[in-house]
Amino acid sequence: MKTWTKIYVTLGLVAVIVVAGLVWRLVSEVKDASLEVVSDNKIDITPEVVQSIKSIGEWEFLSIADEEMVDTIRKGIFIDDHLVRIYYGQLSLGVNMHKVGARWIEAVGDSVTVTMPQVELLDNDFIDEARTKSFYETGKWTAADREAMYRRAYSLMKRNCLTPKNIRTAEINAETQMQNIMRSLGFRTVIVKFDKKNTQTQ
Asked: FRET partner for 56 with CA separation of 20 to 30 A, picked from 43, 70, 84, 122?
């Protein structure tokens, strides 16, 4: 009777050891699998994605409508000649994505830093000459006189519109749009900077 008891006890111990081994192995496999899922958080930016963003080229972030009144007086012997003209312009502020630097996108895990070119005037031909009109005119004026007034209006528009406040507004709009693009790719932390040197890729 004692011999059978020993056999039963031995078989029971073996069964317990086998079951414990299977449970330990199963737990280890589940643990390893969960560790792999947690650690796999790298986000790849393909060259195609980078190129598609660069191909945007001139990217407008702020449009400013402006009008300037310019006048000039020419002294005469008996009477002065007077010319007043009104000029209308539409100035576009933004960045030229063809001017990005060599490492303008740097990603680490779920964080990315994007360095964009500096905000600039995208189109230098911003005065609408078709809308330019003379508000007041006496005397005779040459094409050279009108060209001089055009240049004055041009300088006034640039001075009044390319202000630090407007440039910063364009930068904020650029930051928002780039953050939206990068977050749509899966990045959680997006830092947007501007390259004040405006270095162009070779």
From this structure: 43
Q: How far is CA 63 from CA 29, 134, 158, in A?
A: 59, 25, 13
Q: Encoding tokens for residue 82?
A: 């007077």
Which residues in the chain belong to E strands, given as ranges?
58-74, 81-96, 105-108, 111-117, 120-121, 133-137, 189-195
Residue with tokens 């078989």: 11
pLDDT level of residue 200 (50, 70, 90 thresholds): very low
- Residues with Cβ within 8 Å of 41's Cβ and at least 6 positions away in sequence, in order, are 109, 110
- Write out pLDDT tens, residues 127-164: 998 888 887 777 787 889 889 999 999 999 999 999 99
pTM for this model (two decimals): 0.71
How many Cα atoms within 13 Å fall on the side-chain side of residue 45? 24
> Parallel, antiparallel, or unpaired: how do β-strands 111-117 and 105-108 relate?
antiparallel
Residue listed under structure tokens 């905000």: 119
For residues 162 and 108, is the Cβ–Cβ distance under 8 A?
no
